[in-house]
Known about the structure:
Elements: H1 14-23, H2 29-32, H3 34-41, H4 45-63, H5 72-82, H6 121-129, H7 137-145, H8 159-170, H9 174-188, E1 208-211, H10 220-224, H11 240-243, H12 263-271, E2 277-278, E3 284-288, H13 293-301, H14 307-322, H15 325-330, E4 335-342, E5 368-373, E6 381-383, H16 395-407, E7 412-418, H17 428-437, E8 442-446, H18 455-463, E9 465-470, H19 479-486, E10 490-493, E11 516-517, H20 520-524, H21 530-535, H22 539-553, H23 572-599
Parallel strand pairs: 1-2, 1-3, 3-4, 4-5, 5-6, 7-8, 7-9, 9-10, 10-11
Amino acid sequence: xxxxxxxxxxxxxxxxxxxxxxxxxxxxxxxxxxxxxxxxxxxxxxxxxxxxxxxxxxxxxxxxxxxxxxxxxxxxxxxxxxxxxxxxxxxxxxxxxxxxxxxxxxxxxxxxxxxxxxxxxxxxxxxxxxxxxxxxxxxxxxxxxxxxxxxxxxxxxxxxxxxxxxxxxxxxxxxxxxxxxxxxxxxxxxxxxxxxxxxxxxxxxxxxxxxxxxxxxxxxxxxxxxxxxxxxxxxxxxxxxxxxxxxxxxxxxxxxxxxxxxxxxxxxxxxxxxxxxxxxxxxxxxxxxxxxxxxxxxxxxxxxxxxxxxxxxxxxxxxxxxxxxxxxxxxxxxxxxxxxxxxxxxxxxxxxxxxxxxxxxxxxxxxxxxxxxxxxxxxxxxxxxxxxxxxxxxxxxxxxxxxxxxxxxxxxxxxxxxxxxxxxxxxxxxxxxxxxxxxxxxxxxxxxxxxxxxxxxxxxxxxxxxxxxxxxxxxxxxxxxxxxxxxxxxxxxxxxxxxxxxxxxxxxxxxxxxxxxxxxxxxxxxxxxxxxxxxxxxxxxxxxxxxxxxxxxxxxxxxxxxxxxxxxxxxxxxxxxxxxxxxxxxxxxxxxxxxxxxxx
Length: 600
């Protein structure tokens, strides 16, 4: 393995060298002798092919139920401490300070170089912050400064100074403090919450929403491939009822079997009915590009195709947009993209083969991207809730569900719907063992046996439980977090990136009011019995948390049906559109004030 070298960096620390030494492969003289090399070349070709086929089949089996590699969880730990993308190829030329846009090309840190073993995220950050990459934390500050937050006077209070002082006060690596600064600044844009008061709805004057009518290959044709998106499953049933899925009658008239990765068509169908939609581009303030990039990524995940094939549709979209005057006018700054997969599926660093490089393209750096999981270092990435199974049509539907949750008996202290993972880093097996040992206080629904395929089974467990365990899956975020919140179940989180650093517009910053946090490393090392820890939470505190979830948070996590109209609430869709509109209107007012001050 090769250590990335930077002439401006300090010498590598002893801890890093020790870790690298453990990873080195010691070559044996027997394996490298000319005689043995000759013998290897004499092996029959069909044996080599058979071995390769077995490896490929094993790969498909191990990953058949996961859309991303579990190693991507480690990327958060690396990028937090170094302040840089963990894998950055000079060929992609992303518009990120400190990237390979100029000067010497940077070395590429491979996924397999991520620290492994039973080490917590905090310990990984500490180890890497002492390494030769520590000087790159300056890039985190530069990225923070890229966030355009109206009302922030950077001359009086530079973000760099704030991050320095807060980092010193908290005695934490710059990385985590910078991410916290991101979240605070993104929250300054969240002028619109889940509740509407007075005349906040306002008029549509100067707030037109334009929806591009893209060529069908960018969306409708991908939907038509529903039977072939995955080699082992037919996803067509999830496109029923305008992509909400088949009805889940057992739960009620507004419940559906929605797929966790189908946010793109759900958002598209809804925004086409937006009251401020305009068909004249000159009358628009906000432009929505209905590119189903997540479906495009999914169809190539488990097929042996080149990266050129995976990137083809993204490149075609950029070429199409660059021909549009409305895009060229502001270089896409007033355009939004909604993507139904996680950030890593659109950022294929280096020579990797997973996903596309759509979000690494230069042309995509100024637009806002809304994803179900954001990249911690991207200021224009905003995390939005996964689609749940409840899609109300109006205020009455939300009120009725709130009343039902308030009166529903919680028979279980703890509920957990999930499956074990085969990786050492996962704590799921430990949680499953603790939950089973605590039966009947803890209800475990095993997703490995198909128990989670029916919405009523998962929602039923969450409705009957006071706390719901939410360990990371293949990546830090989890749809189940939102299923539990919608069911009025208090989520128990083990990694801050599962929710705290993801959804600044939809989840409150004071996470102690709506969740319980237990460090995953304590669970991994057997230092804590999770069920016992939750038993000690007073009943009054549980009730207060649940009331806050049901009445304050839950409405803003839902996606209404395509024709939904709310008067007193904003759902997740309304929050995205209204906050983006406020940002664009504020930016325009600021520009006019600057021009006025210059002229007069």
